[in-house]
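Hi L., both proteins are below.
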Amino acid sequence: MKHKAGFVNIIGNPNVGKSTLMNVLIGEKLSIITHKAQTTRHRILGILNEDTYQIVFSDTPGIIQPAYKLQENMMNFVHTAFQDADVLIYMVEVGEKGLKDEKLFERIKKTSIPVLLLINKIDLVNQDDVTNQIEIWKKLVPNAEILPISALNKFNIQEILDRILELLPVSQPYYEKDALTDKSERFFVEEKIREKILKHYKKEIPYSVQIEVEEFFEEEDIIRIRAIIYVLRESQRGIIIGHKGQGIKRIGTESRRDLEKFLGKKIFLETPVKVKKNWRDDDRQLKKFGYE
């Protein structure tokens, strides 16, 4: 049997369940998940390996209208999804009517790349609603194959995989067959901490935060990590630290527990909070943080 391999890139508006879908497809929690928009900031690859195929899934940021340079760079990750895709997954949820970026929506409708349009969260509506949604999207994106799914409940996941395998080209693997992602352990440390901040803080705080692993020392039975939490203003620093340090203690404790499961070792974690003004609009800082 010939080996198949290719890139399957997932795009859609915020909160449609893209990260949940990729995590379910590869069987690992790589992309962080919260109910807040802009949870995904980077393009994250998750690699599914079997003897006869390798599927490289790509989770991209939710599509928004950028308000500052960080968001502009996030949208650049979305546009690159068209450049190497063998299959494009356009993910929507019940009740949606289109992308927030009309030019990108038109590009999807005109692409020669095979498009799988997945209507997510169908467990929240009845069968008639699902049928109506399918008809609406057939008219809006006639070049797409449409599948109703529930990523959270893993409904139709095998059907998606089967169809992807039919569409993938015959190819040797792009990555080592034991690879799970293209990102480093340091990247996932930063993401785990950011996930906890998204979970526990409201309004502008989560979107003002950037994490940077300054030290990562792996010993035989422990990993010692120092990860700086950057914020835009001194007042935000105080909010994250919290009364008598209770806020930052909670972030550290929950992050450490997740990282011990993810990395399989005892973790010693330091999370100092520092102010870095205007980092979201500073090209040099954005490049340093990997937004390029």
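That was the first. Here is the second:
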Amino acid sequence: MDKRALLIESFHAAVGAADPQKILPPHLPQPPQGKTLVVGAGKAAAAMALAVEQQWPSAAPLTGLAITRYRHGLLTNRIKVIEAGHPVPDESGEKAAQEILRRTKTLGASDLLLALISGGGSSLLSLPVEGIGMDELKATTRELLRCGAPIQDMNTVRKHLSAIQGGRLASACKAQVLALIISDVTGDDPTHIGSGPCAPDPSTYQDAEDIIARYGVKAPASVAAHLSRGARGEIAETPKPGDKLFQRVENRVIATAQGSLQAAADYFRAKGIAPVVLGDSVTGEATEVAKVYAALVRQIRGHAGPFRPPLALISGGECTVTVRGNGRGGRCSEFLLSLALELDGMPNTHSLACDTDGIDGSEDNAGAVLAPDSLARAAAAGISAKKLLANNDGYSFFESLGDLVVTGPTRTNVNDYRVILVL
């Protein structure tokens, strides 16, 4: 049995369960009496837009604009696709978001706004409020990315710096709104996915201000002043749950991490390996999560419980990395490098950790694979795993071993996928 191929094929099964071409068509509505405007934002936006085009009646009016990450675009005809910056926003995303908001405001009661939302939308659909420039928004985003804050907290801040997120896109529209959503956050709450442009926002300016303080975020003066004014009630809040505007809005989650984990579980079951799904909402520092998983593996190895090999320990969610070094890599490679040190070459134990969007952090890999001899091979090459982990440099560790997993953009995103094979 080729362990590496087994792990990678299970990852492809997980990603396939969130393929927009497969999952989106059953959720498309009938065309309205008027026109349909499609707007999208996220790593899956281009694939979702293409799926709409392929299924929409040719005689029914359809136009739109979708924003996706650079290198994630696809060739479309009726819905324009714009590429923009992620995870740090840029002017391309800002200009496209302005156009989306302008066109949304032209819709009438007989029209339909079809919103296609997926992970990455928070940075791609970037339209800062008046008084905050793109440079200030970029600086704030970089600080939030470095501080280790969970995505829900990051998005609470971003929603209160945005003219289009936190339900504001829906509030600008007089038409019926259907948002089809691929979830990349734990809990699958639409308000946190792409910062919820069509969803009610229960958070407040005070919450955003508290998050800035809690994580020691060095926000530009204009950002701090805006949040402070909002907390004092001088600026209107985002639309809240119970607002009557949401009576004409539906937010429908069509793909989740749990669905992808189940697809991977089915794959392993067919291979004669018992799957154990540990959860779709695993969070926390990647290095600490790895320590917990290693303890579970040692329990299984040493005491034949609570599960008996052969088995696959499968989990999803979104770990965080508090950046202390200047290395390369993302949370998946950080998790695996920490796991390698904890397991210390344990025989018959293999692992994979990959981001379902095909990009771990800001590098060109989806993640990596870990084998029992990974540490020994690295040591023989004069590579210190401990030093690289301290420098947040999981990418270099696995690159040196030829153990990166490189898929290119998958054009979907249901968060991280992790599996540990205990054979």
